[in-house]
Amino acid sequence: MSCCHHYALAEGGDAAFAVDVSAITFGAGCLREAGDHAASLGMRRVALFTDPRLAALEHLAVVRDSLAGAGLDVVVYDQVQVEPTDRSFLDAARFAGEGRFDGFVSLGGGSVIDTAKAANLYATYPADFAAYVNAPIGEARAVPGPLKPHIACPTTSGTGAECTGIAIFDYVERHVKTGIVSKRLRPTLALIDPVTTFTLPASVVAASGFDVLSHALESYTALPHSQRAAPERPSLRPMSQGANPWSDVGCKEALKRTGRYLQRAVASADDHEAREQMMFAATLAGIAFGNAGVHLPHGMSYAVAGGVCDFHAPDYPDDHPMVPHGMSVIVNAPAVFRFTADACPERHLDAARWLGTDVAGAAADDAGERLASRLIELMRITGIPNGVGGVGYGTADLPTLAAGAWAQQRLVRNAPKAVDEAGLGALFGSALRYW
Ligand SMILES: [Fe+2]
Predict the structure, then answer these.
(1) CA 361–ligand 1 middle distance (angstroms)
(2) Domain check: are 154 and 180 in the same one?
């Protein structure tokens, strides 16, 4: 810990923190182990979730053959929507309910893994859709009991969805991006094969790599768990419990690897060492943020992604305007960390150093600028757009963006500094352009 007082207990604060993680198997070629793991978890009839693009690729065949080779009955659901919605979650849940499965395997990015989580939930404990959705948008009802086993196999080095109990979706009916959050949604096993990233296009590696970076950076700088109000009952301690000594370990290692390997992983698909290290960084950051929670860059990202008018990112589906998740996060980050630095300057300097900046002689007042400068440098090197303005927004959009971010109270409250809606508008203003 960079500061021995960082976890000093505030009056009414939470003296304890909790650690919940998925079981993890990590290594080149481990997708071939899917069948044995599924059988040992008691699965006999398996729903294998993926999206239409991945359905045609070799990785799906590897997993399907492994499951079938272990004697399991496998039914593929390849209709997962990238950037899922309430409707696509419900379609998947209907498939899961009608198929009478006793286990789930998901192969894909965060959209696929999150859809399998939601399908497992609504098929196992049917309820009105809004029942389990985050309050105040939904009822935030507790998941009544354990779900069926779920093996999550990520194919991008980004979301960390294989390690978290969060399922994010676009609630089209309510015009908001939100989620379902429960420890019970966390996959039983994360089966992480870095070979899946060797064929990813550079822009996908860049956007997902910045998602990793920001998971680690936000978790490391989040409000300390000891300053968050203690829960009414221990079982109600939230997953977004704030920074804690456990998540700090994963954040540090994820930031070091991102600082060292992100640029290389983007520059060359043949740099397997860099791509494998970014996959491991994604795992470490996923474990960390799954037990700490992210804050403002992610809270602001939902407004950036949700209000997009005409931005198209290279190598992403071109049928509708879209800001990829990691890109919608990182365009906010330099402005946010300039703002939050005075809440815990040592932590901002730690992060700048782990990302590769020489911070020798830097004073506390320099922390925000040192970290922001390194983020901007990495963004420029890897082809990320120039701030929120670079993905199509202007000054006239600031009130709408601020209102969208303000709705993400779970994330806003996890920031190390209090901010109101007008303050969020000012942050978006500072994030419009960086160079
Ligand atoms: Fe993220």
Answers:
(1) 32
(2) yes
